[in-house]
Recover the amino acids of this structure.
């Protein structure tokens, strides 16, 4: 049965594009039933609209509590009965007001290896560690998000990305993003093809 995915994206949406391409080519047995952004100016929304997927903006209201926002976001996602909610460049931490609605079904992509550089600016921090400490590689992981821990849920897939001696932030970002696109599709293939526990 074709899996139903809701993708949350805050920015450019290149990882969303990788999922759209894999879905449309049949490489991934999934349909992206909706793309939701907290940012009305996100290019991810342009990508979504061009693909024909339902596109929604759920913006935070001034002074809104995180739990209230997350409950609204959960309601918007639930309308589409997703098998998985994929965080592809989603730039907000989700509270249990959201996560409890989708147990074992929220998937996050993070541009670092498990246990390394949680949170924002992970690629930049990896390059700094290379320059200061000689770190020879960083990586990408896809993991489940069971709770409010930052980038530390059960790992579905991970891949190393070497840091070259002459890397700039831009060159390292390009290689990490390429690894992200491939790994996210691979991880989602694994999930949608694996039997779900009742």
């Amino acid at each position: 049965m074709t899996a139903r995915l809701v993708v949350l994206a805050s920015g450019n949406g290149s990882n969303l594009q990788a999922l759209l391409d894999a879905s449309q080519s049949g490489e991934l047995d999934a349909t992206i039933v909706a793309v939701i952004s907290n940012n009305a100016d996100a290019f991810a929304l342009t990508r979504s609209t061009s693909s024909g997927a339902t596109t929604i903006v759920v913006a935070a209201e001034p002074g809104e509590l995180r739990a209230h926002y997350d409950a609204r976001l959960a309601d918007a996602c639930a309308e589409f009965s997703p098998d998985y909610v994929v965080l592809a460049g989603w730039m907000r931490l989700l509270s249990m007001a959201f996560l409890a609605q989708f147990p074992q079904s929220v998937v996050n992509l993070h541009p670092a290896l498990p246990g390394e550089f949680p949170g924002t600016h992970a690629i930049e921090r990896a390059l700094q560690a290379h320059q200061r400490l000689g770190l020879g590689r960083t990586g990408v992981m896809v993991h489940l998000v069971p709770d409010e821990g930052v980038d530390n849920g059960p790992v579905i897939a991970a891949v190393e990305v070497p840091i070259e001696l002459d890397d700039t932030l831009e060159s390292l970002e390009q290689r990490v993003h390429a690894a992200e696109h491939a790994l996210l599709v691979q991880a989602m293939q694994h999930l949608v093809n694996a039997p779900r526990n009742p």
About this structure: The helical segments are 14-25, 43-51, 66-78, 96-99, 122-133, 169-193.
